[in-house]
Amino acid sequence: MNEIKKKIIEAAAALLTEHGFHGTAVQDITARAGISKGAFYLHFKSKEALYIEIFHYYYTELKKEVEQAEDPALAPSENYRNQLEIQIRQFMNNTSLITMYIREQAFSINEQLLSFIRLMHTDMAHWYTAHLTRIYGEPVRPFVPDIATLVEGVKNSYMQLFIANPEKLDPRRLTDLLIWLTEQATRGFLAGEQEALLDAGMIEGIFTGLLPEEKDREAGITEEMSVIRSLIGSLSLPASTSGFLSSTADFLENQAACGTDADPQAIQGALAAFKPYPEFSAACHRLSELLGIPLL
Questions:
Q1: What positions does the domain HTH tetR-type occupy (predicted)?
Q2: Do residues 256 and 291 touch, judged by C-beta distance below 8 A?
Q3: CA distances (Å), 198 to each of 18, 86, 134, 204, in order?
Q4: In this structure, are residues 56 and 138 in contact, taking their beta carbons and an 8 Å threshold?
Q5: How many CB atoms sit inside 10 A of residue 120's CB?
Q6: Can you tell me the distance from the alpha carbon of 229 to that of 274, in angstroms, rounded to the nearest whole number?
């Protein structure tokens, strides 16, 4: 990654944490990074694209640190313990990024963010599978989704409690608790004391339905655009306004057809053109959901 792109990401992460997505303008980011707007758009198509890239950048750095901690000379259980503790320490050093994610994720549960969430989940599932099968052998494999869910749930709950005061969290003690939980859960499952509730297929199904299927999405967009066009024709609007809104509707349809190549900011601006007319509110909100782009 070149130095300018890194500066943009780091400046944007700081500003988004302080002011949120909608409270941060591209101009604010370029000023903090000390670059021109031209340089910004040379590296990122939009603020939305940068938003997703921030998570990819920091996640890649954190993942690299965990992977580098793998020591073939250590027992599998020691590697598991060490890497769990590193994950907790990473949290303590990146609470601002996690705060931004928690606060802003509702803004853009779109295809790009969902893809990133899938990536994190897949990586974590592979990490638990690799470590637990090394420690406990192949018989534990069917129970890994449940064990991982229990450990991650407890880990995340504790870390959220300390998100405002990460310095008060003792990484070693929390790691000890997670190791104890791993051992208790694994013994219980292997002894037949508890049946598995999850499997890999069920976990993958978590993501199903978070976004509309492509055909449903296209049908929904077509339906809402039809509503908008019908309203333009039925409302008593000046000819110039009707013409402007009709042209805006054409632009929205063209952008929707572009898929991932659509310009989110341009779509936001087009939808905002209908804001002065409350009759269009429901259709615009629905289009916003279908396109995964928040209204201004």
A1: 2-62
A2: yes
A3: 38, 27, 20, 10
A4: no
A5: 13
A6: 12
pTM score of the predicted model: 0.66
Count of Cβ atoms closer than 10 Å to residue 198 Cβ: 16
Chain segment 163-204, per-residue pLDDT in tens? 888 889 999 999 999 999 999 999 999 999 999 998 766 665
- Let me know: does 76 contact 263? Beta carbons within 8 Å: no
Q: What is the pLDDT of residues 246-286, one digit of tens each?
A: 999 999 988 888 876 778 888 989 999 999 998 888 888 88
Which tokens belong to 76? 């599998």
Find the distance separating the first CA and the last CA of the chain, reported in whole Å: 32
Distance from the Cα of residue 47 to its chain's centroid? 15
The predicted structure's pLDDT at residue 106: 46
Would you mind telling me the total number of residues written for the chain in this entry? 296
Report the candidate in 222, 151, 139 with the shortest Cα–Cα distance to residue 181. 151
CA 263, CA 49: separation in Å to the nearest integer?
10
What are the CB-based long-range contacts (under 8 Å, 24+) for 79-87? 79/131, 80/131, 80/132, 80/134, 80/135, 80/179, 80/182, 81/175, 81/179, 83/127, 83/131, 84/155, 84/175, 84/178, 84/179, 85/171, 85/172, 85/175, 87/62, 87/155
- Neighbouring residues of 222: CB distance < 8 A, sequence distance ≥ 6: none
Closest CA to 220 of 284, 293, 156: 284
CA dist., res. 227 & res. 280, Å (int): 8
Contact 292, 110 (CB under 8 A): yes
Taking only the tens place, the pLDDT of each residue in 189-244 is 999 999 999 876 666 555 555 555 556 778 888 888 888 988 898 888 899 999 99
Question: Which of 177, 51, 150, 191 minimizes the C-alpha distance to 110?
Answer: 51
The CA distance from 174 to 88, in Å, is 8
